[in-house]
Design goal:
50% of the residues lie in helices and 13% in strands. The protein is an alpha/beta fold. Mean pLDDT is 93; it is low at 1-20.
Length: 337
């Protein structure tokens, strides 16, 4: 019986992965254009996120996708937010990022989608850019920083923007940025990507949940990066003490089901089987998406991570049935709705 089980798993690995490889959809990649880098350099901010920006161009990205078996990638602007107390400079920079992204999508319509950047923390400028990007440029959604110079997702001042995005049934891709304020001594020895990014993502999503943002704006669909960050640990704790916080007037009730049903989770970060199972304690298999984080790691590392994920899915009895959902079907459904 055990031999039969292993033969079945082996055949699934050898033959079952083939059609999945070429159909994979990558929802977590970044476009980095020279004009964006120039703005950062003008303000001495190239290392604001504690590591250098990699180079990007469409040709190299497609070559990586072809070698890894990725059909389509979703482009977003990386961190940091190019805002240095000059609304016009920020808006012009982000407009350029969005227009280049739109052109890349137009030039390679089967290979790229993009989620537009917005010039926050100025909400009026962000609304103007969201309308232009979604209605004119054909953006597939928007990318929002966990915080834009201290303005966190979920904060009340963002409600007018959320209303505009809700009217357009927008997909929102979240990406962590340096927290505000930030622990200088800690990140001097432990770069942001090691710990603060998952913490920052969790902080922003918790803020959204606590204000029931996704229940008040029910047409939004929000992609949380890096395997849900610390949410599989944070949410049970929140649920266990929420009633006491509400009773004492510190918090308002949270509609858990309503909020969580609108969250999706990408798998950037090479998840282990334990991480995948933990993620499934807070979401359903139709809300998990593949993400690579290209171009922030070498191509060989990203290809190895993806192959390891495919093997993990193919050889686990519980997860094998979800492989096509995680790798491409869920992403297609998310962006087609």
């Amino acid at each position: 019986m055990r031999t039969k089980k292993y033969i079945s798993l082996f055949l699934g690995l050898v033959f079952g992965l083939a059609p999945l490889c070429g159909q994979t959809v990558d929802v977590h990649t970044h476009i980095i254009i020279p004009e964006y880098v120039e703005v950062l350099k003008a303000h001495g901010a190239e290392l604001e996120e504690t590591f250098p920006l990699p180079e990007w161009d469409a040709g190299r990205h497609i070559a990586f996708m072809d070698s890894a078996g990725i059909r389509t990638a979703v482009l977003t602007m990386p961190a940091p937010q190019p805002y240095y107390d000059d609304v016009e400079e920020s808006a012009e920079c982000i407009r350029r990022v969005n227009e280049v992204s739109a052109r890349v999508k137009q030039d390679y319509p089967d290979r790229f989608r993009f989620c537009a950047a917005l010039p926050l923390p100025n909400v009026d400028a962000a609304i103007r850019e969201a309308i232009y990007a979604l209605d004119t440029l054909g953006a597939d959604g928007v990318k929002l920083a966990t915080n834009s110079r201290g303005q966190y997702l979920g904060d009340e001042e963002l409600d007018p923007l959320m209303e505009v995005l809700n009217e357009r049934h927008a997909v929102i891709i979240i990406h962590p940025h340096r927290p505000t304020p930030y622990p200088k001594k800690i990140i001097a020895t432990t770069p942001l990507a090691m710990y603060e990014y998952p913490a920052e993502t969790t902080r922003a999503v918790v803020n959204m949940l606590s204000r029931n943002v996704l229940v008040r704006y029910p047409n939004l669909k929000v992609v949380v990066p890096h395997c849900g960050s610390f949410l599989p640990l944070a949410l049970p704790r929140m649920k266990s003490i929420l009633s006491a916080m509400v009773a004492q007037g510190y918090m308002r009730p949270i509609d858990w089901e309503g909020n969580l049903s609108r969250l999706y989770f990408d798998l950037a970060g090479s998840p282990t089987i334990e991480v995948l199972r933990s993620l499934l304690t807070i979401t359903t298999p139709d809300h998990i998406l593949y993400g690579s984080d290209y171009p922030y790691l070498p191509d060989a590392v990203l290809k190895s991570n993806l192959q390891r994920l495919r093997q993990t899915l193919a050889t686990d009895e519980e997860l094998a049935g979800y492989a096509d959902k995680f790798l491409w079907r869920n992403a297609e459904r998310l962006f087609e709705n």
